[in-house]
Amino acid sequence: MKNPSVDTHLLPADRAGDEPLLAVDNLHVEFQTRQGVVRAVNGVSYSVNAGETLAVLGESGSGKSVTAQAIMGILDMPPARIPKGEVRFHGTDLLTMRDEDRGQIRGRRIAMIFQDALSALNPVFTVGWQIGEMFRVHQGMSKRDARRKAVELMDRVRIPGAKSRVDDFPHQFSGGMRQRIMIAMAIALDPEILIADEPTTALDVTVQAQIMGLLAELQQESDMGLILITHDLGVVADVADKIAVMYGGRIVEHASVFDGYRAPAHPYTKGLLESIPRVDLKGQELYAIKGMPPNLLDMPTGCAFHPRCPYRKENCVTDVPPLYTVSDTRGSACHYWREVLDDGSR
Amino acid sequence: MSNATVAESAKDKDAKPEKARRPASLWSDAWHDLRRNKVFILGSILVLILILMAAFPSLFSSVNAYDPSTCDLSNAREGITSKHWFGTDNLGCDTYSRVIYGARVSVIVGIATSLISAIVGGGLGLLAGYYSRWVDVLLSRIAEIFFAIPSVLGALLFLSVAGRENAGAWIVVLSLAVLAWPLILRIMRAAVISAKNQDYVTAARALGAGPGRIMVRHILPNAIAPVIVTATLNLGVFIAAEAGLSFLGVGVQPPAISWGLMIGDARRRFLEAPEPLIFPALFLSITVLAFVMLGDAVRDALDPKLR
Amino acid sequence: MTAPAEPILEVRDLVKHFPLNYGVVFKRQVGAIKAVDGVSFDLRKGETLGVVGESGCGKSTLAKLLMALERPTSGSVRINGRDITTARGAELKRMRRNIQMVMQDPYTSLNPRMTVGDIVGEPFEIHSDVAPKGGRRQRVQELLEVVGLNPDHINRYPHQFSGGQRQRIGIARGLALQPEIIICDEPVSALDVSIQAQVMNLLERLQNEFNLAYIFIAHDLSVVRHISDRIAVMYLGKIVELGNDAEIYDSPTHPYTQALLSAVPVPDPEGRETRQRIILQGDPPSPANPPSGCHFRTRCWKAQDICAEQEPALEARPGSAHPSACHFAEARDVVNAE
After folding, report:
1. Is the CB of C283 less than 8 angstroms away from the CB of A213?
2. B14-73: per-residue pLDDT in tens?
3. Which of A278, A310, C199, C254 has the fewest Cβ atoms within 10 Å of its own Cβ atom?
4. Which stretches make up the ABC transporter domain (chain C) (predicted)?
């Protein structure tokens, strides 16, 4: 352990030489609040390629959504500030780009859908108008053509009776249908990257299954890169190719979904997986990660997870663990990842 | 089995010293904000001086403006002199001491009207919002009737009916309060309705709490902030309204001293002797401004939408 | 197997219709939202009955009816033989001691202007004969200790606690009157994943310690399964299937239960390509205008003419050893099936 091979910030895909479709590189985001500076994102790096699904897992306050907003360029600055880091799209840094150029990418080549579709849609315009707006604004299409394209898109996201519903208002749709409308707007211009921030959290399980199925189909059709931000371990296991687990503004583990679930290399990931209720352990106490998520205003020293960690040793309190290379395709920000890995998950 | 959770809570205790230092409640949070707000500090200093003036005018002026013997007709409309800092008025009375003594009416009208309208409107708003159905319909309709009366016209009417002879400061207070409570009722009612649907109210009902307890302990503390904000902002409005009514001759009557009356008296001879008009007007403006500053600061501190 | 204990909660034919009114001045009823539409079940001492279903199925209205926070349109809720739906005044207040609730959102269920001591001590103020005035503060501290909070934090305000701790405060408040029944309405769904297990463990520990009976309402089936002895599946105001946890999870006989179970993502990527899924089409119909006959028939792949004509009763059938409200009930293991 004396001299671990340290992968400071780059993910494996970057080292291969060819630049991934989208790469977040050592991103830092801070917020100025009345209680002080909150470091919401602290050196996050991840990448996603065409046709790939990256799941960013984390609890509230882990920085997973803030990272996504930084990629989209929709953070309110101030209070937010990006003191360090790059977001490279086809190798070009979006953060240093001119606003006009970035506007060309946002919504057109990188699109995003949100958890709360009702508040993301404008209640005073018809859904057809809102979907069509993408074409009118970005492609200067006529109203008539835009409406026709809107119907096509509503068909594509499988809204029944699209033709007759194109002039309905958002509140006339159910939660699942509204999320489909959001998806239709997001994929209108065939984006290369789709960021889905908790797309199914507000939906019922049967509807959730429909939406996740739809996203998977759309992704296959158009070879989009998908960044799925969620806290739901079940959804991730279903659709992700690789996972990045965030805790306290950092990525604590990244791996292929199979490796990560089979044998997590970070105690936090391991704890999350073990706390899922299991059939064969019914009646027994659930495994619970002790303590609480960290307070971003008062982050623990060293490893942010150390107050809750069963693998903690002295240096965890003082030394911030770098993202150690576990294998070519995975990394773990735990000084004792070998022990965690050897224990397996179940 | 229980050890795990208890031990872990002991851990929480250690992990929380940071939060313990933070202000405890939303009220103290607001107070914390206010203390740092320059507008609030300036406004409060002005208001404090004003209140002091109203309570103890003799501290500011050696001349008792209510004593007619201090007036000297031969000195009428004298400009600024070392004896009469603000000059003298038509009757040769010292404008400075009259301005000082005039603060009392303004302060009484501002504070009393705000308080009365907040208590009446707030209380009825609480009942209307909590009980809804016919109580709400009844109270809201009554409030709407009053609401429909244009305020200056309404006060004029009320005061002319109440009679000029006994029109002291308290009649003005009453006439303004009668017109102001419906606004407070509306604000309170809306706040109560949103507080009433909170889960903690449901939880209290599930415990068997009666309507009195629910209103006083659960709804009122969570619904009163907008009422406080409006009542504070209204202070300045009422002071200006009193001056306006007195200026028009239907507010407080001589020999009482009021800035509005002074302005009214002085306006005809303004070109000859501007001082008896300018100084009360200046004090009136500063006073209204001070209360508005206070109200603004309180709103910034209490309004959850800006937090 | 020991003989089942006497039920402490008996729910019979519970119905709650919210009238839909039209018109401003002259209101006339144009319909009703059938939120709960004929629900019956028993709950025994120390038992946990899980209630699962999607939004709009009536599970939250059911909770409010059991708590006597809403009056039912018809039907009865008997607690130890006494009907809470007809109780008034002092009797209702006394009955409330025996049935308490834990709410979903720990951020809105605690009054932000009250200290933790006031919140947890409020039950004693309302029911002043439960704890003598002098001993209340100590009782509150004991309760905080029981739910795993630091008793010294009695003077703090809710916003000084995290979501999980707030939920513990809510649980302490529910325990104060020593009820026999606690209704848990989605008690962990608003919490962070890593905190959910802590609260689940606490609820189970308290159940063992105080012999509590739970109605555990949730949409997360794995959580419900973990804690429940029996499970009721609700769809559009009705229980469509009722059985013990193994019956519901391993051999569900109602198509809706099967679809619900198979829609839950399994937190294990192995074998996901081959996993079978029943994906339901469309959304649940509006409870204001449910389909005739079986409410589920519009989304059901088994639906026949009879389903539109005859409403299936919730009963044991040839294809289902436990009560199931489907004409074509048939066991199908959707969870373990590959």
Report:
1. no
2. 333 333 334 456 677 778 778 888 888 888 898 899 888 888 887 877 777 777 777 777
3. A310
4. 9-261
Residues of B contacting chain C (CB within 8 angstroms)? 1-2, 4-6, 8-10, 12-13, 16, 19-20, 22, 24-27, 198-200, 202-210, 213, 217-218, 221-222
> Which domains are assigned to chain A?
12-109+193-343 (3.40.50.300), 121-188 (no CATH)
Return the axis-axis angle of helices B169-196 and B225-247, rounded to nearest 10°. 160
* Residues B234, B237: Cα–Cα separation, whole Å: 5
> Which tokens go with A141?
């299409």
Q: How far from chain centre, in Å, is Cα A322?
A: 21
Domain range summary for chain C, segments of one domain joined by +? 249-338
C-beta separation of C252 from C259 below 8 A: no
Look at phi and psi of residue C13 and say left if phi exceeds 0, alpha if psi is from -120 to 50, else beta: left
Cis omega before residue A123 (within 30°)?
no
Which residues, in sequence order, are CB contacts of B193 under 8 Å at separation 6+? B129, B132
Most B CBs within 10 Å, among A33, A34, A296, A301, to test the B interface: A34
Bridging pattern class, strands C7-22 and C28-44: antiparallel
The number of angstroms, rounded, from the C-alpha of C97 to the middle of its chain's C-alpha atoms is 19
User: Does the domain made of B25-54+85-306 have the CATH classification 3.30.1490.20?
Assistant: no
- Is the Cβ of B306 closer than 8 Å to some Cβ of chain A? no
Q: Phi/psi at C287 (nearest 5 deg)?
A: -70, -10
- Total beta-carbon pairs less than 8 A apart between chain B and chain C: 100
Distance from CA of C161 to the nearest CA of B (A): 9
CB contact under 8 A, A297 and B18: yes
- Domain ranges within chain B, ordered by starting residue: 25-54+85-306
Question: Which uninterrupted H or E stretch holds A23?
Answer: strand A22-33
What pTM, to 2 d.p., does this model score? Answer: 0.80
Q: How far apart are CA C279 and CA C259, in angstroms?
A: 7
Tens digit of pLDDT for each residue in C234-261? 998 899 999 988 888 888 899 999 888 8
Burial of C138 (0-12, 13-18, 19+ CB in 10 A): exposed
Q: Where are the beta strands (DSSP E) in chain C?
A: 7-22, 28-44, 48-52, 74-79, 82-83, 99-102, 181-185, 213-218, 230-235, 238-244, 315-317, 320-324
Confidence check on the interface: ipTM exceeds 0.90, yes or no: no
Nearest to B151 by CA among B28, B234, B30: B234
Q: What does the pLDDT look like over A252-285, one tens digit per residue?
A: 999 988 888 888 889 999 888 888 887 666 767 7
H or E element in which residue A40 lies: strand A36-48
**Distance in angstroms (rounded) separating the CA atoms of residues B145 and B132:** 18
Best probe of the B interface among A290, A297, A308, by most B CBs < 10 A, is A290
